[in-house]
Design brief:
73% of the residues lie in helices and 1% in strands. The chain is mainly alpha-helical. InterPro entries: MFS (IPR011701), MFS_dom (IPR020846), MFS_Na/Anion_cotransporter (IPR050382), MFS_trans_sf (IPR036259).
């Protein structure tokens, strides 16, 4: 819903408003916890509902702001930024809770709630739905964006739900997104347990070790994204070839090192190296398959991301459940080997489906229909 509304009415307030509501409720969370657990649950549910439109509405904004020549760099950097936020927030919360800052655990909600409110104030002044609405960008930048993202108003038209539902690349993206998230969230939620129970790390003293794989993923995402964007501008390869090549390299690297982790035993150094490389290779997907909604239909990226992201949240609770079921009273190298093998297998399956069915060429129903009955591609 959030992505579709952002496409129709602009993503600025859908995106910013949702985060602002979540920020206010985050500040109220400690109070709710003291009053009644039912109120706490209600607030957390509303926070989830308010935050839900964030990624889809961001995708809608990217479709209006990011030219095709930068789509492998800018959107992935923003997405990886959220993941980095999770990692470093977890480490900071642990430190604040231990030091008793602002009452201990409530400090996490106060600090990040206030920071989010400050972000929203900045967003009100600096965020805009489209280049032509921004009063402060230079004429050179506006001309560049208008040239590569045609701004002329299209005819009023409904979202082509039937065509989206019958589009094989959309299904390829959705399946890839689900499988990627299973691998990613399983690692994100389970690596701390693996580090502490198998490798015997003290995460409070070795927080950087846990954050290192995601720092490497961020660097890989930026570097590979830059390379892909340059190859795309030069038209050395088609976008379909580039996306599938990214997927193949990322899958071979990530799945290979995931499987290898299970055979490292309790060797800290080699296990950490394999973890770093496995997560690092996921960066090929982050700047490839995961943002390829923009390749096939940039005008409806918000809607498509809303669909695929909703489905891709399922692994967020299925993955940890599977890990818990396998390792319950069984924190052994063999149990974790099975977890890593399952994650690698699911990731490889998603990549296989993507490589078979994905086509990165712009879909005909994405092209803008202007008031003069001409059509124009947005993927220039």
């Amino acid at each position: 819903i959030g992505g579709n509304l952002a496409e129709k009415f602009g993503g600025k307030w859908i995106f910013g408003g949702g985060i602002f509501i979540a920020s206010i409720l985050t500040l109220l969370t400690p109070l709710a916890a003291r009053i009644d657990y039912k109120l706490l649950i209600a607030i957390r549910v509303i926070i989830g509902m308010a935050s839900g439109p964030a990624f889809p509405s961001a995708a809608a904004l990217w479709g209006k702001w990011i030219p095709a020549s930068e789509r492998s760099t800018v959107p992935p950097a923003a997405q990886v930024g959220t993941n980095m936020g999770i990692i470093f927030t977890t480490l900071l919360v642990s430190i604040m809770a231990q030091n008793g800052f602002l009452g201990g655990w409530p400090s996490a909600f106060y600090v990040f709630g206030i920071l989010s409110c400050i972000w929203f104030i900045c967003w009100c002044f600096f965020g805009f739905n489209a280049p032509n609405e921004h009063p402060r960008i230079s004429n050179k930048e506006r001309l560049f964006l208008n040239k590569h993202i045609p701004p002329r108003p299209p005819k009023h038209r409904a979202t082509p739900w039937k065509k989206i539902a019958c589009c094989p690349p959309v299904y390829a993206i959705a399946i890839m997104h689900i499988c990627y998230n299973f691998t990613y969230y399983t690692l994100l939620t389970s690596l701390p347990t693996y580090f502490s129970t198998i490798l015997k790390f003290d995460l409070q003293q070795s927080g950087f070790t846990f954050a290192l794989p995601y720092c490497v993923q961020f660097l890989v995402t930026i570097i590979v994204g830059q390379i892909v964007d340059r190859l795309r501008v030069r038209k050395t390869f088609s976008i379909t070839t580039l996306r599938k090549t990214q997927t193949i390299i990322g899958t071979i690297g990530a799945c290979g090192f995931l499987i290898a982790i299970g055979y490292m035993g309790c060797d800290r150094f080699r296990a950490v190296i394999c973890c770093v490389l496995a997560v690092g290779f996921l960066g090929f997907h982050t700047c490839g398959a995961i943002i390829s909604h923009l390749d096939v239909a940039s005008n409806y990226a918000g809607t498509i991301v809303g669909i695929t992201n909703s489905l891709a949240t399922i692994p967020g609770f299925v993955g940890p459940y599977v890990v818990g079921a396998i390792t319950k009273n069984n924190q052994t190298v063999e149990a974790w080997r099975l977890i890593f093998n399952i994650s690698a297998g699911i990731g490889a399956f998603g990549s296989l489906v993507y490589c078979i069915f994905f086509n990165g060429e712009e879909q005909s129903w994405n092209r803008i229909e202007h008031v003069d009955d001409t059509t124009e591609s947005t993927n220039t």
